[in-house]
């Protein structure tokens, strides 16, 4: 096999997800098509401070998939990642690949903060002897990738991008590179996040990133709407199986589509503010990598978190880099913002839109912001016959990732 597999292409053969919309990739996709919201009120015992009392919580318990003995060694984000990876690998038909040719790339934005805070509380109350012997592996940001690699027996590397809300998308970009460079035949790639804790909600609230809108939780996340007021935190995991095209076809794999191109850059301007210039550069670079032109893109899955400035910056960037012709959707209107998992789920959504010929509508777009100027799908899902889509993912720190997905004949 050539050490450069670029000409072969990289196919997506398996999908796995646990999200606020469902306990699998298929259930989550149906949730998008049904325009269901996964954003709910937090438990009654949630503290009064911080004032935010809603979030997107996963609908399935990952402990049931892993078993309690194994699950108790893992942070919740690690549990979600392993469960999603197992589903994706099964969905791909459990490809028979040499361990040295199977790699894992699973990113996270925050890491095992639930375990870090929980173990710190335990230490303060009871001292060293009560701490879990797995406390360190639970809080390590590379923990999800490591556990997935052990679960699947992957020995071509367990990589862990930690690039805030772009981590899941960057994982797919790195997986693409690994296959193109001939370092793996199969890569299990995605993102995970589980940080719904009063401290984390308070921290995001303090920086004025979260919506504090009252009323119906399902109506709060409203990307591109004139009355958007911030994002809604969520947890989840999304994982895909990437394969060298020759390898996948030789084994007769079912194919969802192609990861045709990717770009990762950094704005190098501000620790948290969106930067449309860097986003434009990422989108243009992803198109070049895929060998496509802006007119080839018929659908854009927007990062669109429902923040006043962020949505406008991305709208400006999409219009400049791609144009105003694509059908745009923002699924965070239904899932909330799954942070490190969001980019992988966005790519999954864009791929399924091409595969099934339908773009899910954006929920809560009741009064479109006239400054957006994009063709945002709202009200009803839109039937499409498209060959290429682009998925954006941006993160605090100036991380910008754009992925290009294409339909495979």
UniProtKB/TrEMBL annotation:
Q: What Pfam families does this protein map onto?
A: ketoacyl-synt, Ketoacyl-synt_C
Q: Which organism is it from?
A: Streptomyces gilvifuscus
The record's listing under NCBIfam families reads: PRK07314.1
Q: Which SMART domains match?
A: PKS_KS (SM00825)
Keyword Transferase among record annotations: yes
Checking SUPFAM superfamilies in the record gives: Thiolase-like (SSF53901)
Query: Is Iron a UniProt keyword of this protein?
Result: no
> Under which name does UniProt file this protein?
Beta-ketoacyl-[acyl-carrier-protein] synthase family protein
Q: Which family does it belong to?
A: Belongs to the thiolase-like superfamily. Beta-ketoacyl-ACP synthases family.
Where's the Ketosynthase family 3 (KS3) domain?
7-407
* Keywords, comma-separated and alphabetical: Transferase
Q: Which domain of life is it from?
A: Bacteria
């Amino acid at each position: 096999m050539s050490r450069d597999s670029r000409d072969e292409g990289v196919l997506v053969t398996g999908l796995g997800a646990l999200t606020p919309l469902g306990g699998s990739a298929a259930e989550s996709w149906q949730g998008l098509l049904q325009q269901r919201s996964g954003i709910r009120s937090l438990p009654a015992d949630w503290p009064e401070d911080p004032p935010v009392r809603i979030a997107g919580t996963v609908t399935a318990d990952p402990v049931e998939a892993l078993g309690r003995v194994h699950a108790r060694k893992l942070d919740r984000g690690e549990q979600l990642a392993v469960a999603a990876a197992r589903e994706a690998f099964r969905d791909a038909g459990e490809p028979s690949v040499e361990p040295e040719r199977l790699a894992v790339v699973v990113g996270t934005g925050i890491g095992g903060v639930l375990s870090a805070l929980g173990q710190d509380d335990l230490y303060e109350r009871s001292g060293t002897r009560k701490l879990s012997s797995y406390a360190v592996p639970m809080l390590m940001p590379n923990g999800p990738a490591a556990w997935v690699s052990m679960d699947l027996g992957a020995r071509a590397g367990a990589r862990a991008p930690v690039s805030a809300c772009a981590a899941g998308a960057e994982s797919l970009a790195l997986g693409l590179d690994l296959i193109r460079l001939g370092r793996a035949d199969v890569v299990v790639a995605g993102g995970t996040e589980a940080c719904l804790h009063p401290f984390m909600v308070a921290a995001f609230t303090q920086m004025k990133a979260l919506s504090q809108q009252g009323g119906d939780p399902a109506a709060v996340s409203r990307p591109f709407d004139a009355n958007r007021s911030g994002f809604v935190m969520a947890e989840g995991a999304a994982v895909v199986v990437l394969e060298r095209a020759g390898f996948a076809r030789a084994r007769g794999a079912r194919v969802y589509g192609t990861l045709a191109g990717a770009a990762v850059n950094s704005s190098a301007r501000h620790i948290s503010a969106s930067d449309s210039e860097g986003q434009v550069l990422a989108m243009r670079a992803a198109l070049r990598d895929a060998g496509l032109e802006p007119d080839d893109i018929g659908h854009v899955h927007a990062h669109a978190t429902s923040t006043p400035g962020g949505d406008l910056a991305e709208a400006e960037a999409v219009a400049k880099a791609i144009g105003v012709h694509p059908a745009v959707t923002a699924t965070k209107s239904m899932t909330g913002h799954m942070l490190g998992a969001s980019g992988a789920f966005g790519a999954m959504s864009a791929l399924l839109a091409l595969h099934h010929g339908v773009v899910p509508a954006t929920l809560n777009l009741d009064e479109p912001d006239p400054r957006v100027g994009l063709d945002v799908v709202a009200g009803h899902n839109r039937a499409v016959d498209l060959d290429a889509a682009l998925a954006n993912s941006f993160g605090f720190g100036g991380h910008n990732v754009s992925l290009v997905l294409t339909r495979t004949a």
